[in-house]
Amino acid sequence: MRVISGNQVIYALGEDKAPVAEVQPGELVVFETIDAFGNQIQTEKDLFESADWSTVNPATGPVTVKGAQPGDVLVVDILDIEVADTGVMVAVPGMGALGHIIQESESRILKIEHGFVQFNDAIRLPVDPMIGVIGTAPADEPVPTGTPGHHGGNMDTKEIKKGARLYLPVFKEGALLAMGDFHAVMGDGEVVICGVEVAGRATVRIDLVKAVDLATPIVESKDHWFIIGTGADLDAAARYTLDQTYKFLNDRLPLTKNEICMLMSVIGDLQISQIVDPQITCRMAIAKVHLARYGLRF
Fold first, then answer.
1. pLDDT over 90 at 195, yes or no
2. CB 9 within 8 A of CB 59
3. Among residues 175, 243, 161, which one has the least CA distance to residue 209?
């Protein structure tokens, strides 16, 4: 099994950097990661303002996938996510959706043990690890790892977790997959600019589907499809997500346009992934049970 060290990082997907490894379709790979603050916040005296912003949101990689070409789809099965025994959170004035309320910068170091994050003496949160940043090289210029897009990136979508399958468009030869920004737990919206940021290890199987039209990432879980969309604001992200959900269903179901739109309105759940990055990310959840008779597949 190939192990990619957390010391091998990039700060923009698609940046001009030699790949750290080449893998075969179907190969198992372990990505080791450092936390989204670049491991710079080690004590509660280390405030966010003191961190080197240029080393925030590192992603381990990139890894090339043999045979991947533009127009293909990268398939990433997330087999396991392990997290460190401490996590970090920050609250920063003027940052995030609640920055207008926060008046004093604060860092919190949170203990993680026995499957729980100890938030305080009264609150223990079940660990539910997820991958905040994961993506391929974008079609055009490099995109910072802190920004989401059609290539993936900083989607901060909590459904990208153990047991999920992620479909990513391939825009450049080799795909150039990288990932990082793990969270021990995170709520939809990530409203204070972070979840419980944590270093970790993800074991994934990387595969390839040739010549399939995919414009935006899709997550498949045991029970749902999640079509992910990114836009300049919440309205734009929602519209793009809805359009891509329509396309996904229209390509696979023998229904009229009106039927698909009505179906989306009764079985689709439009959800917010994050509202604090340079671009906003939404997703639409489609429960598989309603489409079981059609045998819908990617």
1. yes
2. yes
3. 175
Token pair listed for 291: 């489409």
Q: Cα–Cα–Cα angle for 195, 144, 271, nearest 5°?
A: 45
Averaged confidence pLDDT in the chain:
97
If you count them, how many residues does the chain have?
298
Q: Which amino acid is at 96?
A: G
The region, left, alpha or beta by phi > 0 then psi within -120 to 50, assigned to residue 83 is beta
Q: Tell me: the pLDDT tens digits for 168-192?
A: 999 999 999 999 999 999 999 999 9
- Cα–Cα distance, 50 to 27 (Å, whole number): 40
Residue at token pair 């923009």: 12
Q: Enter the tokens of residue 258.
A: 């009106």
User: Is the pTM value of this prediction over 0.85?
Assistant: yes
